Amino acid sequence: MTQQQPEIKGWQPLEDTKTALNVAMLAAQALSAPVEVFLRTRFGSRYFGVPAFLGFIAVPMWLLLWPGEDPRPMTVFWAFYILMQLRARVESAAMVRKGDIVHTRYNGRPRLMSLFRKTPELKLKAVEPWLVMLVGVFLMAVSEALGSYLIAAGFCLALVESTIAAAERARVFQMHDAFLEQQQTAERFRELRRR
Question: Is residue 3 part of a domain?
């Protein structure tokens, strides 16, 4: 019996680019996950997954970039992240038990909505990254490790939010086009029936 040799694939630019973008998005989600639980509430029951776990690891790993830095501010942030993550998961489970209907992958309702009731959710989510980065800039005087982490997390949160908004916009355009196509098809059907 002859063994088949595995097929060696060459450079595949589209697949390689998609893979690289997926890895970059996962890294951005992992870095931004620890700040999301401070900024939002009412997450979907399946929102937390691999990025939240990687965020749990990313916070202490960030300290490796700052070997001479006092680890206490970052450790306090990490402990609060763990508490807020548990609170968010308990809240999501309670919402499911009560029958609250929310998308299972919903990335949360901004806490800022309680202050700015008339501002649309998407606008508040666009402001959140700037708020995180601003807090990070101010905290650089106290802890460079924590301040730099918050600046990076804010940038990653902006990247994640803009990607989600672009995907939703593309989905809306597809629905709009499908609606128009169905209208045209229905009109042609009515013309056919009149004949």
Answer: no
Residues 137 and 151: beta-carbon distance below 8 Å: yes
| Whole-angstrom distance, CA of residue 61 vs CA of residue 71 | 11
Angle, helix 50-62 to helix 72-98, in steps of 10 degrees: 170
Tens of pLDDT, residue by residue over 7-61, are 666 667 777 777 878 889 999 999 999 999 999 999 988 888 889 999 999 999 9
Closest to 107 in 3D by CA, of 14, 185, 29, 17: 29
Query: Which long-range CB contacts under 8 A does 64-72 form with residues at least 24 apart?
Result: 65/145, 65/148, 66/144, 66/145, 66/148, 69/143, 69/144, 69/145, 70/143, 71/145
Residues 13, 73 contacting (CB under 8 angstroms): no
Q: Residue 40 pairs with which residues in a beta bridge?
A: 110
20-43: buried (b, 16+ CB within 10 Å) or exposed (e) per residue? eeeeeeeebbbbbbbbbbebbbbb
Name beta bridge partners: 110. Answer: 40
Does residue 10 form part of some domain?
no
Q: Give residue-wise pLDDT tens across range 87-125.
A: 999 999 898 888 888 888 888 999 999 999 999 999 999
* pLDDT at residue 171, rounded to an integer: 86
- Domain encompassing residue 73: 15-189
Both tokens of 170, joined, read: 């593309």
The total number of structural domains that make up the chain? 1
